[in-house]
Amino acid sequence: MEKVVSGIRPTGNLHLGNYFGAVKSFVAMQAQYQCMFFIADWHSLTTHPKPENIQNSARTILAEYLACGIDPQKAPIYVQSDVKETLELYLYLNMNTYLGELERVTTFKEKARKQPDNVNAGLLTYPTLMAADVLQHRAHKVPVGKDQEQNMEMMRKCARRFNNIYGIEFFPEPQNFYFNATALKVPGLDGSGKMGKSEGNCIYLRDDDKTIRKKVMKAVTDNGPQEPNSQRPEVIENLFTFLKIASTPDTYQYFDEKWNDCTLRYGDLKKQIAEDLVNIVAPIREKIEEYSSNTTLLDKVAKEGADHARQSAAETLNEVRKIIGFRVY
Ligand code: TRP
Hints:
It is built from 13 helices and five strands.
């Protein structure tokens, strides 16, 4: 079975955009591939977070992913910093990676611009750490968004270069796995393009029913349909997208017809969307709360995940050490 590895940014508080995007794709993938997911807390050190935030954010994220349906029996989930084997591979990969190519990575240039006082070596070598994350498991596929394309190129370059230097087909070149092609894009509630944290237009999986209803009822609309069968403006189409995501096809058709014969009342449409979203979010929220209060279980899941990942990485590193010419005990 093909192996899939993906990192998760350690910023908790998932919203519906994350849920219907990456998270649901992860849940679907765990049935078809040998998946491993990890919380990328080493990567987060490039911005110097506070120690007290690190452990808690790992638990927060674990609770959220478990609540969404990641099954650690099928897809081990671990905390990056628990598996120190990664660092050894990171070192080897850094030896074969050139300053010039790292400096050309757009995400590096962007971050260097954003934090000019903290352009550290970790920021520069972010792509080789990311390569080590995946290559240590000799994974075949990495679910990523478009923004990670260059990092994925670097990862394949690391694999290829290692194989070339030692004249051995050891690392597979991991392929991008674009879940976005099939994933549902959740719009914002403010009429703007997409649901996103920085846009401030999110429904979070931790929102209570009242908050969800309030957010939906406040969604931007217009004066209503003016002519039969007219095209919907973006703000209204966005509401229909929510309907498509959260409601049954019958319900969608019902409101679609109302739009087309100009009898649609946005209040009714929003109420429908709100109730359907509540029905999706409430059970997840309850599970998040349940998991969050069970730190023993969360720590057990993380430990078992780490044990699994460590073993997988150690097998690779043993081979790598032999290939390079180091001793293996
Ligand atoms: N760079 C990824 C992001 O910003 C996170 C990440 C780190 C990752 N290591 C990874 C993703 C390995 C996939 C595979 O979202």
